[in-house]
Amino acid sequence: MDYQESLIYLDELNTFGIRLGLARMEELCARLGHPERSCQTIHIAGTNGKGSVTQMMDAVCRAAGIRAGRYLSPHLISYTERMSVDGHDISEEIFAALLTRVRAAADAMVTDGHEHPTQFEALTALAFLYFAQEKVEIAVIETGLGGLLDSTNVIEPSLTIITNVAMDHADRCGGTLAGIAEHKAGIIKEGVPVITAATGEALQIIDQRAEELGADIFVCGEDFSAQLFFPKEGGQCVAFHSIICREPEPFELALAGGYQAENAALVIMAAQIMSREDVRFTEAALRAGLRSVRHPARFELLPQGDRHIIIDGAHNPAGMKALRAALDAYFPNLPRVFLLGILKDKDIDTMLALLLRPGDQVVTVRPDSDRAAAADVVGAVSAAMGLDTLACADRRQGLAEALRRADARGALLVVAGSLYLVGGIRALLTEGR
């Protein structure tokens, strides 16, 4: 297959939907020669923040001189964004060639009476093949959904990170916070250290699972912590504290948003644990990684003349709460216009109640997903809150209307609600740059 043919094939795999379970993935990896065993891995799960932690951890590995791979999802524009080596996304040619190998193995599975792998399973296997081919030393792997039955959970990591646990994907992870926590805790392996920012009932479940497996656990807020502050000379820094090591000087942090302090704390703790076995994880490498990391569409400020535009992938209640807090901290006095698109399986009412404030204006569009809520459905919720709202037929029309409103008021434009929306809007905003 060439790249265009590979896109058609991936679209065809959507017919298999989302099917949790490891049997297909284990069989697929076996037929491909177990590429998931070719390198050391760091496994990352959590409701929010896992993408940022994955990017930070990858940046730290690269700053340490380690040949690093990174796997995350979903992508913003291209499937090739999901997997990288040494900071460079996979090329379309290599992507297509490796997916051709995965397809052959998947077809052979079906011939032999096995279920056909899902799209995410095929992509995950492709990433493992890529890391093996490129002789990656450490791969940073983000889970797709949950953890216990997620396709990525065929790896045997050196370190596990669970960012936090909140109500999201409850329909597929037990229906309760406890059920979700059990799925996240499912990535913990025997004797493998685990770092987490979970709290309350979720932490109890994760802690119990770690104890059962003899895994050392390090808890944010108990064993370590971090506070974000803004130096007079500009920028932002994280002050990190830990009970197991001396307190270092504050770390510069490239990613904006108050919630990134907690994410950075997880990464700093992770680097300190990894340094016990790998001397390349130095404080200098840690500083360089946190200072240089980039994560598009996560409280990303897009410069565009005199306009203030924030692109953020917040897509559940916890994410919206964090986005609102970041907006209030960084832009407390600017009026706001929101361009929103949300998936229909999300708690739309709660998300908008947490995000919006009186006087906000809202433009809604439909994200590019089969699971998307219609623009007028989301618009009806914000209109019921008494906000000036307009539902638009497509993304270009919605963006034009949102920009018009923001320009008229000298307002901050915020694009959020789903990664299936913000990637396309970000591409429209950066056209020709």
In the residues, how many domains can be counted? 2
CATH C-level name of the largest domain: Alpha Beta
Shape: globular
N-C termini distance? 31 Å
Structural class: alpha/beta
Total helical elements: 14
Question: Which range best describes the helical content: under 10%, 10-25%, 25-40%, 40-55%, 55-70% or over 70%?
Answer: 40-55%
Task: Determine the mean pLDDT.
Answer: 93
Cα-atom Rg, whole angstroms? 21 Å
Low-confidence regions: none
CATH architecture designation of the largest domain: 3-Layer(aba) Sandwich
How many β strands by DSSP? 17
Description:
With 433 residues, the protein is an alpha/beta fold. It has helices at residues 3-13, 23-31, 50-63, 92-111, 119-133, 177-185, 200-212, 260-274, 283-292, 317-330, 348-355, 375-384, 395-409, 419-429, and strands spanning 40-45, 68-71, 83-85, 88-89, 138-142, 159-162, 194-196, 217-219, 224-229, 237-242, 251-252, 300-304, 307-311, 336-340, 361-364, 388-391, 412-416. Helix 3 packs across helix 8 (260-274) and helix 6 packs parallel to helix 7. The two termini are 31 Å apart. The model has no long low-confidence stretch (mean pLDDT 93).
